[in-house]
Specification:
The protein has 164 residues and is mainly α. The protein has a domain of 90 residues.
Length: 164
């Protein structure tokens, strides 16, 4: 980048003062500052965009690596499961080959004699019977309403005797 020392900046300022004049110099300096700031923001935005694209490329590479690793693990697990099921099936056939005397294994008849457990029935509740947790004497002593009253009946009950 261009190296500007203090002496070069002072020389540029003196030339600008002579060429532009003292009346227009502050306005020109303000405009140059705004343009310089816009240029810096533009350069910073370009740098940020380049960094984002580089990070995006790296993330895409990492994603493909993880997907490949996941596929490898999945295929190895599936292969191990297949091998285990094949060995289990062959061992099962070998073990059950000698058990059947008439073509039907003895274990199937013992399974038929076992009954399934009875289905669960929840206890019946008497929904007509209200079970209050608070005793009636407690409600009476503390003035808790136990009977529902309409609004008109409540007003008539508490109306002063002279207005009835």
């Amino acid at each position: 980048m261009i190296d500007f020392g203090f002496d070069k900046l002072a020389l540029i300022g003196a030339v600008a003062l002579i060429v532009i004049g003292p009346e227009k110099l502050p306005k020109v300096a303000r405009t140059v500052g705004h343009l310089f700031g816009k240029a810096q923001r533009y350069v910073a935005d370009v740098k940020a965009e380049v960094n984002r694209s580089i990070e995006l490329d790296e993330l895409k590479k990492m994603k493909t690596q993880f997907e490949d690793a996941a596929r490898d693990v999945q295929s190895s697990v599936e292969q191990n499961v297949r091998e285990a099921s094949q060995s289990f099936e062959s061992d099962w056939r070998e073990a059950t080959a000698g058990l059947s005397s008439d073509g039907v294994s003895s274990t199937s008849s013992s399974y038929e004699s076992i009954r399934p457990p009875p289905s669960y029935t929840p206890p019946r509740k008497n929904w007509r019977l209200k079970r209050g947790a608070t005793p009636q004497w407690y409600k009476q002593r503390h003035g808790v309403r136990t009977k529902a009253q309409s609004g008109a009946a409540r007003v008539a009950r508490f109306r002063p005797p002279g207005l009835r």
